[in-house]
Design a protein that fits this description.
The complex is a heterodimer of chains A (about 90) and B (about 425).
Chain A (H helix, E strand, L loop, with lengths): L7 H12 L5 H6 L12 H15 L13 H14 L2
Helix pairs in contact in A: 1-3
Chain B lengths: L8 E9 L6 H10 L5 E2 L12 E2 L7 H4 L2 H6 L2 H16 L13 E6 L5 H13 L9 H4 L4 H10 L5 E4 L5 H14 L4 E8 L4 H7 L30 E9 H6 L6 E10 L5 H19 L8 E3 L6 H15 L7 E3 L11 H16 L1 E2 L13 E2 L5 E2 L4 E7 L4 E9 L6
Classes of the chains: A mainly alpha (about 90), B alpha/beta (about 425).
């Protein structure tokens, strides 16, 4: 079965791919409530990640996804959207 | 302080990323020895294009110099600019960032080509896969202002920033802009230009210029001021300088390598080379006037040297018009014949060569150029030792801008 859950590990990989930000997944997990900019990810970087996910899953994410402030908030929104549509 | 009028802009740091050297010392060694490095273009995807020869920056490893996020988010022209800025700041003894007074440090760069390689990659995604595959950094990476922004972000510089988009001569205009900012009270300006026009899309953009040399022999492709002049050869790379208030530089014990003494710019229209004579002459007079410099005080001229017969003639006449009889006696040089013209960065690299020439007491030669067919004392073959206090740097752009900059040896103008 194809999982529609985006994990912390995948988010870390996307941060690297879309914005060149290297972040340890463990660290990202522990600091999941910290703002994205504390990891060096700016709004364009988050927009790039949203684009990557939309292309990967072939569907649109809600406009609010690119305005999420923290990794936790972002993953919750993305995964609830993907799960709801599964 | 009420001494606004007496504030002088001093060059205290130099960074170079050029086809003939990735540091100022390597650049000067090659320039002063007159070693030409023009060669067949080897960059990927370019071998089917009729432009064959250029000045490529080959040993540059962006990943060793700038962080991953800049590699992903910015174009090669910004990588050059960030690398050159880091070298310049290091040379000035200012480290690479987090200044004690961030609002006293500004950045200004000139750009004429933008991020062509990055833009091409994203446009290929647009037409190959669709608009949803275009990355958001396309919105900033191709843009002329990208290097200014990224240098200021990387270093935490929050002073007055800007970008000069005024054609090739904009390289000199950016130096003038920085000098003005310093005279108006900004402590330190990081200034210069870098270009990366050697990628397929960027090269195709240049093919329309009638002034472009498509000769495929590197030794014959760019020979201004000769009867074999057949246009110019493009180059990539750039230079960044640290310009700061001279008194402040001396207070902190920094070496004042030169002062930016005068500048003027004019416009005479795209490819109207005959008209550039008057425009360039007026720019020279304006720059000398601002510097309080008599024509006879000019010890060396770094020529624009476009390599188009009509343009070369106009430049030789402009020098004579502005400097009088001294114009035929003053040593003139064009080290860019060895490395190519890096568009806006070309006159900045020339300004670096001028500062180094003043320091070393040597006029570097004009590689690949012999048998000068104009009434100029063009230095060829090997460097000429000379007592140099004042250099005049000239630049013209393909779109019609003309500019002249006067630089004086460090400390010379203090009296």
């Amino acid at each position: 079965m194809i999982t529609t859950e985006v994990t912390i590990d995948e988010l870390a990989a996307l941060m690297k791919k879309a914005a060149g930000i290297t972040v340890d997944p463990q660290e990202l997990k522990q600091a999941a409530e910290s703002p994205f900019d504390s990891f060096g990810l700016d709004s364009l970087g988050l927009l790039g990640i949203v684009g990557e996910l939309e292309n990967r899953y072939g569907r649109s994410l809600p406009p609010d996804s690119e305005r999420c402030r923290t990794p936790r908030e972002f993953l919750d929104l993305v995964n609830s959207t993907l799960t709801a549509g599964a | 302080m009420s001494n606004r009028r007496t504030r002088r802009a001093a060059v205290t740091g130099i960074g170079v990323i050029a086809p003939n050297g990735l540091r100022p010392d390597a650049y000067w060694k090659s320039v002063s020895e007159g070693v030409p490095v023009l060669d067949r273009i080897t960059r990927e995807g370019c071998d089917h294009l009729p432009l064959r020869v250029a000045g490529e920056v080959r040993a540059f490893d962006a990943a060793a110099i700038v962080e991953d996020r800049f590699l992903v988010q910015t174009d090669r022209f910004s990588h050059f600019a960030m690398a050159a800025a880091a070298l310049a700041l290091d040379d000035a003894g200012l480290g690479s960032g987090d200044p004690a007074e961030p609002f006293s440090v500004g950045v200004v760069t000139a750009a004429g080509s933008g991020g062509g390689e990055f833009g091409q990659r994203e446009l290929q995604k647009l037409w190959g896969q669709g608009s949803k595959f275009v990355g958001p950094y396309q919105s900033i990476a191709w843009f002329y202002a990208a290097s200014t922004g990224q240098i200021s972000i990387r270093g935490g510089f929050k002073g007055p920033c800007g970008v000069v988009a005024s054609d090739e001569a904009g390289g000199l205009d950016s130096l003038a802009h920085a000098a003005r900012a310093v005279r108006r009270g900004t402590g330190t300006m990081i200034v210069g230009a870098a270009e990366a026009p050697l990628a397929p899309y960027s090269m195709v953009c240049q093919l329309g210029y009638p002034e472009l040399s498509t000769v495929d022999d590197p030794d014959r492709a760019y020979r201004p001021f000769t009867s074999g002049a057949c246009g110019f050869v493009p180059a990539e790379g750039g230079a960044i300088l640290v310009v700061e208030d001279e008194d402040r530089a001396r207070e902190r014990g920094a070496a004042v390598r030169a002062t930016v003494a005068g500048h003027a710019a004019t416009f005479t229209g795209a490819s109207r080379w005959e008209e550039s004579r008057e425009g360039l002459a007026r720019a020279i007079r304006g720059a000398l006037d601002e510097a309080g410099c008599a024509p006879e005080e000019v010890d060396v001229v770094f020529a624009d040297a476009l390599g188009v017969p009509e343009a070369d003639r106009a430049e030789a006449l402009a020098i004579a018009d502005a400097l009088g009889a001294h114009g035929t006696r003053v040593p003139v040089t064009a080290p860019k014949t060895g490395i190519g013209r890096a568009h806006c960065a070309a006159p900045v690299l020339d300004t670096v060569a001028a500062v180094l020439a003043l320091e070393h007491g040597q006029v570097p030669p004009t590689p690949n150029v012999l048998d000068v067919c104009h009434d100029l004392d063009l230095v060829t073959s090997r460097a000429r030792p000379a007592e140099l206090r004042t250099a005049l740097v000239l630049s013209r752009g393909l779109m019609g801008s003309n500019a002249a900059l006067v630089v004086r040896r460090g400390g010379e103008s203090a009296r």
